[in-house]
Amino acid sequence: MSVNTQDNHAAVREPVPGSPPGGQPRSGSSPRGRTPRWNWRTAQSVKGASLTFPFLAGFTLFVLVPVGMALRESVYTTRSAGGLGFGGQTVSFAGLDNFAAGLVDGSFWAGMLRVFLYALVVVPLTQVLSLALALLLDAARRRTAARFRIALLLPYMVPGIVATMVWIFQYSPTVGPLTPFFEAFGLDVNFFSSSMVWVSMGNLAIWGALGFTMLILYGALQSVPHEIFEAARLDGASELRIALSIKVPFVRGSLVLTSLLSIIGTLQLFDQPLLFRAVTPETITRDFTPAMMIYDQAFNVGNLNYATALSVILALVVGVASAIIYRFINREEP
Asked: Is residue 228, in this structure, part of any structural domain at all?
């Protein structure tokens, strides 16, 4: 009986490099040139990514789309056909003319200087007072800290417009309780005068932001390992030394976050001076802050294209200021 060796050799196939013995493909591997099959891990990844869809949809609809519309409006100019504003309107492409006008607008940059000086006082005061309150709550008993935490957070829960109206009533020289209080000590304080209006608004801003900032810093303090405090006490460190040398460095990241949030909110100051203007229009003008000037150009003057250009400039200023302050506060120790 003859044996066909050629057929036998052809039946023996050399194993593919990387394949298991016996020539069987590994489980889960796909043949070369084919797309991988839909498995359980891929399905879980897609399911997890789908949870971000509501945020992405809202971010696109309420942030990206308005930004795109603002950029589009800022490069056009709308003019009335009639000299007195009657007749139709003509829209023409202006390029960067609106931005050039905004960069040399003295009223806009004067308002920017006002809020910058205002932020130099209000933001550090808010951070220092919030940090002090957070350290006091961290040193207190848990039950006591919970009670004060809720009380300090209440001002943040009040809407900004409502809080401003409440404080305007408090500042009123006719019906407010603060003016008679200072008169009892022989002090004549006018909270709506040109020298006190910034103090009045600053007090309102600190009152509203103190509880929120304190809560963030207090939460950061709770994550610090308490074994470090015990070791410091055994070494003879006082509570003040522990707070300044251990607790404060641990909440540095949270301080950077709250400082940036305060700066962004301060540079966009709008609702407080707008309501104060109803009481003291001779002190707070229409272009008192950049946001107020943008509002006036858009809704009173009717120059929407110039207002959107100023909005873009304000957004760039806020972004650059935030980046500079972040690098300054969060720089590495030598």
From this structure: yes
Which residue carries 């957004």 as its tokens? 315
7 domain residue, yes or no: no
| CA nearest neighbour of 130 among 265, 221, 226, 232 | 221
Q: Decide: 82 and 260 in contact? Cβ < 8 Å.
A: no
Does residue 21 lie in a domain region? Answer: no
**φ and ψ of 17, to 5 deg:** -60, 135
Contact criterion met (CB below 8 Å) for 44 and 34:
no
The tokens for 248 are 């404060």
Q: Are 172 and 276 in contact (CB under 8 A)?
A: no
The per-residue pLDDT for range 81-101, each reduced to its tens digit, is 655 556 567 888 888 999 999
Helix (H) or strand (E) holding 153: helix 142-157
Number of independent structural domains in the chain: 1
Q: 150 lies in which domain range? A: 99-329
CA distance 25 to 203: 73
Contact of 194 with 146, CB cutoff 8 Å: no
Residue 164 has, within 13 A of its CA and on its CB side, a CA count of: 18
Cα–Cα distance, 66 to 312 (Å, whole number):
11
Report how far residue 149's alpha carbon sits from residue 157's, in angstroms, rounded to the nearest whole number. 13
Instruction: Determine what percent of the chain is predicted with pLDDT higher than 70.
Output: 84
